[in-house]
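During the first year of the project, the team set up a workflow for recording each protein of interest as an amino acid sequence followed immediately by a discrete structure-token representation. This format lets reviewers and collaborators read both layers of information side by side without switching files. As required by the reporting guidelines, we include two representative entries from the current panel. The first entry is reproduced here exactly as it appears in our internal archive.
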Amino acid sequence: MAYKALYREWRPKSFREVIGQDHVSITLQNAVSSGRISHAYLFSGPRGTGKTSSAKVLAKALNCKSGPTAEPCNECEACGAITNGNSLDVIEIDAASNRGIDEIRDLREKVKFAPSENRYKVYIIDEVHMLTTEAFNALLKTLEEPPSQVIFILATTEPHKIPATILSRVQRFDFKRIGVSDIVHRLKDVMAELGGAADEDALLLIARKAEGGMRDAISLLDQCYHVGEKLDTGRVVAVLGSLAEEEVYALSSKLLTSDVTGTISQLDGLMLEGKDPGQVLRELTEHLRNLLILNSAPDALSLVPVSRDLLPKIREQSKWVTAGRLVELISVLIKTDGELRFSSQPRITLEVALISLCAEREQHVPLREKREVQAVTPETSTGPAKPQAGLAQETAEGKEAAAGSKPTDLSMAVVRTEWKKVMALVRKASIGIHALLLEGNPASLADNILIVSFKAKSSFHRDKVEQPENKKIVEQALFSALGYPLGIKCVIDGEATNHTEPDDDIINQTYQIFGQDLVEIKD
């Protein structure tokens, strides 16, 4: 006997076997039980979610020997013929290859005949949105007033392409994507029936790749599983050409820490293994999405479909950056995904995107109006790059890296010009600290220390900002906005600071007349 694909073998034969579509199954069962059968239905939703299977189950429920019944027996001759596709009264039509007006006219003529051997004649028209406008028009009258023993079930993945005149004549049921946990449970049932063994992480990976489609998941399982062998994650990764979770985690770690060399080196290794740039990009984007969920809603673990071994790592990784930064990264990667589809050099397109994201994180702000930001040089850094747990951790590392390097072209005029940007970065990191800092103003700058002055009545705000963990956030915002590792000192108006600055108004006027490139300020 010829081999039968698993997705055909495991096609639902009753409503209870249709996974994840209870809202549809229960409604149809109630309609059959109460005798309130509509003459036309529209089943819409993503591929592989049970539309055509549900249509055949409904046809069996109506024509079962013991029916009409809420659940077909799957034992009588009528049920067997419909399951095997041999019933003369259940006609499946592929609208993609029978989309013209002539085919619909032929259908209209055959509809007039009574069922050959069952109670109802059921027409299942798959991918109905492929019909031409003329064909839809020819179907209208028959769809509105079919013979009493005829039922139409239309199925489509693109309901927006169906004319409103058709939609108004049918009962519409929207099938949803099937959850990862439901798919994994079904795959376990399949493996148990096959007598095989599989790691749960391997089934989880298959379920994620199926993107909500049960048929796709079972097809992928059929592709990966070999009789007599245990199905593990390594085999699934090798067969599907995807990335292992640890590889995606390592790549994202290098990206988040602005490790340009490490990012491009790992990407090169993945390309040498034959990985597709688009696949790498999509899996990296999905990983960053998981980080964003954990960063924004730490308790929403059900929305993060990763293995139990990786979960603690990415929970910690999600603390390295702010939610705002993750949104920026994901937005750029999604845009790059669109560019890859039309790029003749997809690898280079991906490399450029990743390098620019690393550089953006390093500098955070490009060159400003003829003023070149002096970046921290490699010679001043100590030790390898470390994971950056938000703004607070980066500040200490930035100051350490730049120890002994004194700014040569930073003045209070520049600080005050960029103060709004500093405040915006502080707000992104902590709304509470931003509210405290609103009461202060930059007063003077010397020896890499910025004095922030508070009014006498705002001593509480001064004390709070002066706390070490809060100072680190402000200092990192200064570093990100100005390109210099500055410290801060919070004082009350009138306190002696021993820091003096040239008159800022004179400096600003001089800059406007001669330009910053031609002006040199000396003590």
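The second entry, processed by the same pipeline in the following quarter, appears below.
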Amino acid sequence: MFAEVDAATLSAWLVDDDELALLDAREQGAYFHSHLFHAACVPLSQLELVLDQLVPRRDVRIVWCDDGSGLAERAAVKATEQGWTNNHVLMGGTAAWSNAGGELYAGINVPSKAFGEYVEHAFDTPRIPAAELNALLEAGENLVVLDSRPMPEYHNMSIPTGIDCPGAELVYRVKEVVDDPATTVVVNCAGRTRSIIGAQSLINAGLPNRVVALENGTMGWELAGLTVERGQTMHAPDPSSAVNAWSTEAARMVGERFGVRSVSIDELEQWRADPTRSTYLLDVRTPEEFEAGHLEGSISAPGGQLVQATDEYVATMRARLVLIDDNRVRATMTASWLRQLGWNDAVVLDVDVTSAHALPTSAGRTPRPAVPTVPTTTVSDLAKRFDQNIPPVVLDLGSSAKFRRRGHIPGAWWGVRSRLAEARAALGEVGDLVLTSSDGQVAKLAVPEAQALWPEATITALAGGNKSWRHADHLMSVEDAEEHLTTTTDDVWYKPYDHDEQVVAQHMRDYLTWEIALVDKIRRDPTVTFPVFE
């Protein structure tokens, strides 16, 4: 059901002209510690839910890898069963790659993070230390702080006086916030990448103001002993017609500089009908705009996040990326960065998606892939059994971070779908087992696999998962979390802020050190190159 490839073959494939999806089948937390630069994380436990979006062409070359644990082989078989026909496995995994002289990387979203560091070096993007910014704020200097993260991150913590304006929105909205050329514009994020890309976007667009990136973002601010604000909701306003005129012309000039081209709807349809190439439709507007109406077949990929975490949206190297918005400002700015990242076929759809009445559009979020029909238990039935003191064994296959910090169904155990054998060893024989997960999808996928391990048991999935349990106002427990783990909690990457308060500062320092060091590391990697533009 798959072929094996050695490190030399994969190395050649990474730099040839054909499409390639390099996928790591481990859980995100395990992947975080050591992986190939170009490998997108597609955990075996999530495969059916994410592979169609990440790798839409079913006959594209796929190479699965892991650390020699056997997950790559299992993922290749599963992908073949799901309809992907060109699966390969890297022989010997990451160890063989390293032994052959290949570089391995720690971290998440490594290509985008490394690119951010490269941009700072290549453009000499101006930056301001936290202490200097704080002094300017206290002195009442003429400046504006623009936070380039999505609203939930900004709402959680922000720099005092900061206004939320996510990456691709900066050029689109900045003139609505800053009308004085003498105003200093400071762009910040949590760490470094979005600050650097955001500040350089405004500079590339020709904003006449002094523009600087906040060095090390909110992490640098807190490490300097300064206090962040919480719960803020200030967002940069929608642009007026005059601001639209400026941003349209600014984006046009940026597009010319970086070779961004537009495609018509007819050309798009030709691309989508081409079975030899992968075409992604990426709507770079805000999630709210996307949900109000979007082109059928497109996915929500807000421009700043798409540049910051490209591998979470697109896993096929050398694919065609068609960016969609309403007036091409956000799409052009995003495409300019994607082209510098190496996506040569990042283009802009020459259509205003909000007024293209002849195009098939739909509202709401992109639906998740359907899962097989399996026996389920309703929230009310499960709650009744708790009330009657005859609860079943509950196995939570959702995020370990949420299980430990946000709570779980009382008495529930935690596990990973791809490690159900470990859960079987921890739980032993059970007569009645209810599987749950964040929204119940992973739990449904796991029912037949669990049934094979507990053939005599009654096994069901909780309909709607933990979200339904929580929304019904049933108790969520954080007690006994550590005692009820069936496997290692390396399913997710724990961000610096996710750690206990006494070690957060050290994790922030470690993260920033890692990020800064990436630019030197990629210089040693012959599989990593970024195009150079005048």
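For the second entry, the following points were noted during internal review. The first helix runs from residue 7 to 14. The chain has a mean pLDDT of 95. Both points are flagged for discussion at the upcoming steering committee meeting.
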